[in-house]
Amino acid sequence: MKKFKNLSIALALILVLILSACTSGTAANEDFGKDKGAEKGNNEVRTNLNIGIEASPTTLIPNTDPNFIKDMHLKSIFEPLIGRSPDGEMTPLLATEWENTDDLTWKFKLREDVKFHNGEVLTPEAVKYSVDYVMDEKNQSGYRGHFAPIKEVKIIDDLNFEIITSEPMPTLLVKLADNLLIMEPKHMEEVGDGAAESPIGTGPYKFVEMKRDQSFKMVAFEDYWDGEQEIKEINYRVIPEFSSRLSAFLAGEIDLLNNLPVDSIAKIEESNEGKIESVSSSRVIYLGLNDKEGSPFTDKKVRQAANYAINTDELLEFVLNGQGTKMTGPLSVVNEGYTETKEYEYNPEKAQELLKEAGYEPGELKITLETTNGRYPMDAQVAQAISTQLNEGGFDSSVQVNEYATHVSRIAQNEVKEMYVSSMGTQFDAIGSMNNLFIPGSTFLLHTPSEEIQQSIIDGSSIMDVAERKAHYDKLQNWAADEAVMVPLWQQGDVYAINENLEFHPRVDQRYIFTDVKWKN
Q1: Contact, 236 vs 77, CB < 8 A?
Q2: Alpha-carbon distance 348 to 285, whole Å?
Q3: How far apart are CA 498 and CA 255, in angstroms?
Q4: Distance between CA 352 and CA 161 in Å, rounded?
Q5: Which residues pair with 110 in a beta bridge?
Q6: What pLDDT digit, counting tens, does each position of 194-245 carry?
């Protein structure tokens, strides 16, 4: 096996080329988001926060597009019924109480005196409207499949309501916590399509304006049910290229930056501007193997060859500097349904052997690996390293770098080429993870299994007994590993660059909860 040091040198050269090729058009505007407290030497405590982000939200209407960037923005404006603690445990939020009264009925009680940003009071009607919106086919919600078993939201009185399902739905609470934001019915009906530009929720921050591909601004909601916010103004700044985001941070123009590549940690630590914090997040990174008709990955042996050709341990150690937790199957260890599965040990000779059995001589099978640049930590560099490993395993691979929005669209429309880098975040249950990856109709469908496997995944979603459900999905995770339907890589280690005077701590669900953030005196 070739020593990885040579590859590391090559990667360093590639990194220099990538960074030097970054466009200068994203250079920071030095007046962006500043206030008097931002100037050095001024003792006044700041009340604004500036964040670097790689893209604008796809839409400002919640409960539509399953997109992390959109959720990152909108989950400060809207709120779910159930929240999560920093370590991922479910907690009361807009709903203060809930009870599973029988296999098909869940009873909830809303928090009193909660107001929307337009002054309307939160009632069960808003919950019913939000669920009905998702379930209405004309709205084309990407979350519709998550709530398919819901039959009715039954209003009891001004605070209490029931959610009635057509079949047992053990993941209802998880789905309510992660995939349903409560909308204001009157506003939605009045503005119609204009809701895409004027979001109204119950959250701690109100929307001010969005300049697409430039910026997004929110201000604190004065009548927020949980009290006053110390951070009064949130400014997201869209800077697609990571090197430009890093430059903006080091210049003091942004205060918070996620997905920090490990080779930039020292720059932050040596500067006078920031500090580093990291967390093992709920996001998982994997390689999709496009199995549409005509693709070489319809052949199980070729899929297995790809798994044997990739050395995940070395990628984690030498490219990511240990910032990640290795996976062997479709679920991460933070997922309640996780089970340990078969591991494909690094064996390039075995990969070449399997390719020959599939009819390909070494170097004969050409494939393209699509990736983003700056969406995930070291994503373009990881892709280059994987390409080198694939070539040593008998493939003839090349890398195609996409902008994030383009990359997501290509995956959703099944326009990606043979192999692609992708991820799944904020999935704490096996049902949601397996449905997203393997049931046709999902935005991030990874592999189309047999009808028998699809039915088994669907059947598992109605098993209420925890132990029985766990055993059911253990078998399905082993199926995914045996069939090599993906190349699992790692549970992402999130590295944040944080202004040295900002009190901020990253969360396992990757959310920004600004009610917990403040500036030091």
Answers
A1: no
A2: 22
A3: 6
A4: 59
A5: 95
A6: 888 899 999 999 999 999 999 999 999 999 999 999 999 999 999 988 889 9
Residue 138 burial (CB count, 10 A)? 6
CB atoms within 10 A of CB 340: 12
3-state secondary structure of 89: coil
Q: Which DSSP helix (H) or strand (E) runs through 280?
A: strand 274-289
DSSP helix/strand/coil, 284: strand
Q: Which residues pair with 121 in a beta bridge?
A: 115
Strand 365-372 relative to strand 419-424, pairing = parallel
**pTM for the full model?**
0.73
Q: Are 458 and 439 in contact (CB under 8 A)?
A: yes
Residues 6 or more apart in contact with residue 232 via CB below 8 angstroms: 47, 48, 219, 220
Phi then psi for residue 152, to 5 deg, are: -165, 145
Q: Is 486 exposed, middle or buried (0-12, 13-18, 19+ CB in 10 A)?
A: buried
Exposed/middle/buried for 390, CB within 10 Å: 0-12, 13-18, 19+? buried
Count CB neighbours of 266 within 10 A. Answer: 10
Query: What burial letters (b/e) apply to 511-521, b meaning 16+ CB within 10 Å?
Result: bbbbbebbbee
